[in-house]
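Why does this matter for the project? Reviewers at the last site visit asked to see concrete outputs rather than summary tables. In response, this paragraph embeds two records directly. Each consists of the residue sequence and, immediately after it, the corresponding structure tokens. Nothing has been edited or filtered.
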Amino acid sequence: MALLSASGTASGAPQIPQRISGTTLPWSLDRGDWEFSSGVTHRDSVHPPFFGEDSSARRDELLFCLVDATVGLGSGGEAQIRFGVQRIDPIVDEDRTGVLDPRITITYELPLRQRLSAALRLEVKLPSAGDEHRLGTDQMDLFLTGAVGRKRVVWGWAAEAGLAILGHPLRAGVQDDLIVFGATGWWNGGGDRLRLFAEISGMAASRFSNDSRVARAGMQIGRRRPIDLAVRRGLTSESETWGLEAGVTWIRPGRP
């Protein structure tokens, strides 16, 4: 989920959230620091991957992120794992419930001494959700991106771009190579107890109608256990129509 960290930095700027949005943030957690979050997302009128041109494939989705855990590895590295369950309500079929594909991510903050920070990110989606009822694609997907950003005491921003490789669920040995991108910004409206954020992210250059894009806006309230709320709006015909998100994060600094 999109969740903010509340710890401070030596420069006086609050530590920027690791999960404020789908856009990668180019700041890693310190060694031993970790964040654990969970939440729920509702998306209305969604096309499953590779079925963007099939109007009968649209469905409503309720996604429960049971675990979103990130730990600082030191020397600019951090690792993340996410998994959960889902319930879909298709237009032409009965409701289905199943697991969400686990995702494992490694992020490395580059050792730059500039105003801008930068990081590289590798994400792997593991094929746990079966494709029988379009709960998943039953394929492994890869994402490789780079991110840049800047953070100040009151505001910050980050942008990301890279490549994704999605395995086709119906054609053996066929993949969809896409461009992935995202941009997010936030404003600390109440010190480190209230943050407002907005984002645009998505995928482009698909050969199989996977050009989904979404705009998000929301807020996070609290420090040690911040709660976040957001609204979503799809920007392409392959995307969802509307969506809502809610989540909570537990933050624990590592021991000195």
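We now turn to the second protein, recorded in exactly the same manner.
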Amino acid sequence: MARVYALILVGALPLCLGMEDATTLLQQSTMDRATPCPDLAKVTSYGGAGGNAYVLRFNKACGPVKAGSVAKAFQSTEEAKEAVDALARLPKVKALAGLAAGTTEFDGPCVNVDPSADCCEAWKVSDTCHFMVMENGGAKTLEQCAEGDANFHPLRLKGLVVAAIDAALAIHRLGWYHSDYQLKNIMADDKCDPPSLKVVDLDTMDDADKGAGQYWNKPHRMFSDYAKLLGTCDMGAFQLDAFQYKSAKAKEMAGKIQNKVEPIMNPHCGDSHQMTTEQIIALGQELKKAVESAK
């Protein structure tokens, strides 16, 4: 049956190809999506989940996939293709944890899936998942940095917020926006060092525009990146000082940052769609200076 199926597929390839060339093309396509190592479950661990996918972390190398990489697992080939295509066209920004060099896609069993995650209640390890391989974003989200350590220094929090604004500015200057720029989608190393900051969950990044004055046009979406980062304007994210800090001094710094940025953001909560891209970039620069001045 497998042989007949292969012949059917080969027969469906362009007639301009000879049988030998068509067979080679089919084999290459199959090999390109092969699971990169036989012990995928052992060299990876569960790394979280979203609405339609979960994430694997590569604790060790898996064939050509480097240790530290992450892979997003989809059950729909269409969703996987859309995600890969979206990341493939992203702008060149150092802070973006985009597609990994080399192997960017493979198919394999849905190893280390968590059935309690919203995406994956009906998923089984025996199911086939379609994986998108991405660069290592870091060890902790900024939310985990804020909430995870009683010794978390307030200046480190300020440095992370400044670095996140810098990353947003770099994205916006190229005419793009993130769309869900919350602390949970921004990462750093295990020490929460600001220079290590990386932006993840890039599937919904875009540069589309609805036109001047339209709700959810490009300036509106760029503005929402800052609103979600800082928790202002009721755009779906916690205020920076509302997280469960274990460090009282870090929480105090979060409040000071909040007090600095709200007077800049609040006047535009209802009219950011009327702004220009240049005005949003200027606002980002103003926000950065305000955060840097928090003491």
